[in-house]
Recover the amino acids of this structure.
């Protein structure tokens, strides 16, 4: 089940942080490391700081965008020191986040996403997450080094897993499983088309779309519920536009 928990590092600047993050992961039994457009990788500094976690660094998957990194995940938690204006569900307590993450990881892939050293995650990247988490810290200075933030959250995940190791067997029927980020992405594309086709939106409107994305992220629709909604959208698309009298 820990194998279903992915750590995603977005555009890491210092390769040493990739190595330290891999070490932090391995000490907690995590092994799936995905790097989004790292500045320098592979790099000897990453390997040096990985110490006994060289296998994780060498096996890391490198992708171009965050959406590629998390397409197959049902829960994507962005780690952020600061609260953003986006209305995504937010975990104030990392142990609550870890309990939910471990629960979903029994049957599906999930991810914890970490931003770059200089400016964290962009709003657009947070838009690819389903939730946010902050590590409660000193209000006067609360920003951890990237690999240390990975360590703290990986430790919380391990603690949650030790308390409820459970079984790795899928516990939900396929239809009752949560939707992946990719399935939700297709749904939101469809919804945007219908909103523009119906005249509800006269042009793409990022804020409205983000609000609706946050609404559906909170609802955590199953695959069955999402296909019901897709069916509803398709039926609206088939309707003739109403003529003005
Ligand atoms: N200067 C950046 C912070 C970069 S620290 C900013 O102001 O946003 C690198 C990454 O470590 C962050 O993007 C975040 O994923 C993680 N991180 C650091 N401190 C954290 C905290 N208190 N809570 C959650 N994540 C944190």
């Amino acid at each position: 089940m820990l194998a279903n928990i992915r750590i995603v590092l977005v555009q890491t600047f210092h390769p040493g942080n990739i190595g330290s993050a891999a070490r932090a992961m391995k000490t907690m039994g995590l092994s799936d490391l995905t790097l989004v457009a790292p500045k320098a990788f592979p790099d000897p500094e990453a390997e040096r700081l990985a110490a006994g976690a060289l296998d994780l660094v060498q096996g890391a998957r490198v992708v171009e965008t965050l959406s590629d990194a998390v397409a197959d995940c049902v829960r994507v938690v962005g780690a952020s020191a600061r609260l953003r204006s986006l209305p995504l569900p937010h975990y104030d307590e990392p142990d609550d986040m870890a309990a939910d993450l471990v629960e979903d990881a029994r049957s599906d892939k999930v991810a914890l996403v970490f931003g770059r050293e200089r400016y964290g995650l962009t709003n657009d990247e947070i838009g690819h997450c389903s939730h946010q988490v902050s590590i409660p810290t000193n209000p006067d200075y609360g920003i951890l080094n990237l690999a240390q933030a990975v360590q703290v959250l990986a430790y919380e995940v391990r603690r949650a897993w030790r308390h409820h190791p459970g079984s790795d067997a899928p516990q939900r029927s396929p239809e009752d499983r949560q939707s992946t980020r990719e399935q939700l992405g297709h749904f939101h594309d469809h919804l945007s088309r219908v909103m523009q086709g119906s005249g509800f939106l006269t042009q793409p409107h990022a804020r409205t779309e983000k609000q609706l994305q946050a609404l559906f992220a909170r609802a955590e629709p199953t695959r069955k519920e999402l296909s019901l909604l897709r069916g509803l959208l398709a039926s609206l698309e088939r309707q003739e536009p109403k003529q003005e009298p």
